[in-house]
């Protein structure tokens, strides 16, 4: 079955598929939809080896998968750590498990952090994920990686080069 899937995937014209999906997308697009299509367009233009999406619930990664990029998408599910001084709780891993049913999504679960700075936690999650991807052979030194994540209320698209 895997051989059949690989063979069929190799015959698809992903550029044409992206154009057709964009043609049928609603205008005006929602901010999330616009970000997802922009990430795929950026990955195609940069010939990125990987798309990395940091998410809590998995919705953004699923939207990116909707646009059928040729590159694999790492859906990095970051646990949400909450506390009220005495009681600590952490969100569950169901968003990571649920992303397994979507084409092109590879879930990675990142443990919650109690650090003071969200920027530090985000950079740590990106670095950890890139190391995992390199170990698994999804990308090698010199490859471009497109990253989508949030910083407070802003969404950021980055293009990183593997080192």
Automatic annotation (TrEMBL):
A Pfam entry, by short name: PK_C
Source organism, top-level taxon: Eukaryota
Keyword tags: Potassium
Residues annotated as transmembrane: none
Any GO molecular function: magnesium ion binding
Domain Pyruvate kinase C-terminal: 33-153
Assembly, per entry: Homotetramer.
Official protein name in the record: Pyruvate kinase C-terminal domain-containing protein
Natural source organism: Vicia faba (Broad bean)
């Amino acid at each position: 079955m895997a051989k059949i899937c690989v063979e069929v995937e190799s015959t698809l014209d992903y550029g044409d598929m992206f154009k057709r999906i964009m043609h049928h997308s609603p205008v005006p697009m929602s901010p999330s939809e616009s970000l997802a299509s922009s990430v795929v367009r950026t990955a195609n233009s940069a010939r990125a080896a990987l798309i990395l999406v940091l998410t809590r619930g998995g919705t953004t990664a699923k939207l990116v998968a909707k646009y059928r990029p040729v590159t694999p998408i790492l859906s990095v599910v970051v646990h949400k750590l909450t506390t009220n001084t005495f009681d600590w709780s952490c969100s569950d891993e169901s968003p990571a498990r649920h992303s397994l049913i979507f084409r092109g999504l590879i879930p990675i679960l990142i443990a919650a952090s109690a650090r003071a700075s969200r920027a530090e936690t985000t950079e740590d999650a990106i670095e950890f994920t890139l190391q995992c991807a390199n170990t698994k052979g999804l990308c090698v030194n010199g490859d471009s990686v497109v990253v989508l994540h949030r910083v407070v209320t802003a969404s950021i698209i980055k293009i990183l080069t593997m080192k």
